Every structure is written in structure tokens, then in C-alpha cells.
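ugh ok fine here u go
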Amino acid sequence: AIVIEGASVGLRFSDTAPPLRFENVDLELLPLDGPGSQMVLSGSMTTPMGTRVSVTGQGDVRTHCFRVVAKAAGLKLTPAGAEPFSLEVARALTAADLSGHIASAQLWLESQDGSTLRGGFQADLDVLTFCPPQFPRRLTGAAKIVGSLQDQGSVNVQFESRSERGVVKLEGSVQQLFAPLVEAHLALTLEGL
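structure:
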């Protein structure tokens, strides 16, 4: 068994961005019952936003294959949360005066061959508010955000705002997050405005 208590972990996704730091990391890595090199991981850690996250996983110490899942709820969303992934995206979110509340979030990392790291995340936002420079008013609604670490990183967003004025839907994607030049696409649908 391996027990980690009170540790700090940093993940760096880009040479030009600060690391994503987790504090108060408490983890247990225990062998599965029976012969073999399979291990199970459980524990928790504190996110940079101050929220406690549960961590579970499984792996094989002989093949170095693993899968780890971290789950959290009740996270505050700010542009600073994007900084470890892309300073350019964080600046754009700051310019849009973005804020919100993440009802639930999940992050996963895995290696199926013992060398290539894959991963992604999903966040369901019950509140997202922002004021895009190209739009005449502040928008408040709900959103789903899905991201991937593969292919230089990507984030896809679906947002919907309903009010007495009508419905605003935004669907967007940001590709090449970890590359020098970020690529973004946005589609806007207006109903009843």
C-alpha cells in the first residue's frame, strides 16, 4: 500500500501558462485482492478554487496503464481557472467579464499503453454569466463544457440563456489550446428577440 497525506501536485499543460496546482492531496493506492499487479486508488484533494475533489482510479504497476477520475461539485468559475490551459483564453474570458457556478465537474486522465497520456473533462454549469464584446447586453444562463487533452487540447461549449426577451444559444469550440495559435469557432442562435 502507498499512502500520501497532505501533498501538493502541479500539472503543467503549456510552457507559457502557470501549472494547475492541487493542495492537501490525500491518496491511498492499494493492491486489488488476488495475484497480479493491479492497484486501486482513492482519496481527495483541494482544487486551486478551494473545493475538495474526490479521486478514484485503477492501474497496473507492471504495465504502467492507469485511469484516474476526479469529481467535484459547487465550483466557482472564473477566467483564472483557464490560465493553466491557455493564457490567451483566460484573457478573452476576462474581457467578457465571465463568471459562474459549476454544479458538477469531472476530470479524467489515463494511459492505456503506459506512455501516452490522454484525458479530458466535463462541467455542467447551472449559472454562467458574461458580456461578450460583440453583444449589446450581459447574458446569464446554463452551460455544458467538455474538454480534451488530445490533439493539442480542445474545449466545446453549449450555452443557453432564456429570458422574457427570448432565447440566446451559443455553441462554440476552442481547438489547439496547447499550441502557439489557438483556433476558436462560435455559432449564435437567437429566438424571439
